[in-house]
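Question (not urgent): is this output format expected?
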Amino acid sequence: MAKRKLQVGVIGLGRIGWNYHCKTLAAHRDWHLAAVADPVDDRLREAITLFGCKAFQSCDDMLADAELDAVVVASPTHLHKDHALAALGRTLHVMMEKPLAANLVEAQAIVRTAKRRNCLLTVYQPHRAAAYFQHLLRIVRSGRIGKVYHVKGGSFRFVRRNDWQSLRKYGGGMLNNYGAHRIDQLLALTGRNVRRVFGHMRRVLSLGDAEDVVKLVYETREGVIGEMDINQASGTVSYEMEIYGTRGNIVKHGSKYTITSVSPRQLARTKLIRDLAAADRKYPRDDVEFDEQVVEASPRYQVDVYRDFARAIHTGSDPFVTPSEVLSVMRLINRCRNDGGRIVATPFA
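Got this back:
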């Protein structure tokens, strides 16, 4: 017997709420887009015409009138806490846009409330769910490059942000915005037991007061290094993702991975020479033949987060992105912000 479609409401009809959540949910076999909420009348009329759903000017009106199983919160970051708590207060399951909240304290309040109300809570992290990243995880976990000790993730563009995400009062800035994506990926690769953090934030091109350049370096208690660069003032892409292991490394280029590895069997027996005079004044070297392979990320590894959320609701099991994983992202964002302190203003000249 087929499971019934779950009734879902979407709060916020902006770029992500409209183009990703609404359009996907309206066509999804596991969901029925029953209602939307947004203060802009034109957006509401568009939703009624295109999706045939109920439309409300406020989150509270939608929650009071529509019969729902779950809510997607796609409103601006500074509204996340109020909208999430309102939905959880009606015992609805919640999928949040990233970041979970504007800060760690608000994020913790949302997670506590979801647990107390016995509701499922997850965050939309499409970059972790993407086929390219799921394929990467499989390569790493296969042991092909040995034990991972350093992971790098970067996002580089040249853009003058002049929208709400350039303003701190709305929870804007690249640490919250793109950082929530990259940090989520890095933690999945390095482990989440973070020991120490270096953070730096800078504003170069942004027309607002929030950072558009972020540097984050952290070390886990196991000694693995995570490194993130977000630079919205760069005309070149320095790198996308690099993973270094004891037997090789992986470099991402678009949808392809270059895997370079060496078998320990290739290493000739040698010994430590403690003498100060190097034989024949030569430097040590290992003559090994590295295996290099270029792998195209397979689309079959894509995770349908909406289908997974429906599965979790029907079965009462954990969603793809769990609250504890979300809090680990928020903690690292918080530590990066605290370590970096003030945003260094370096206006483009």
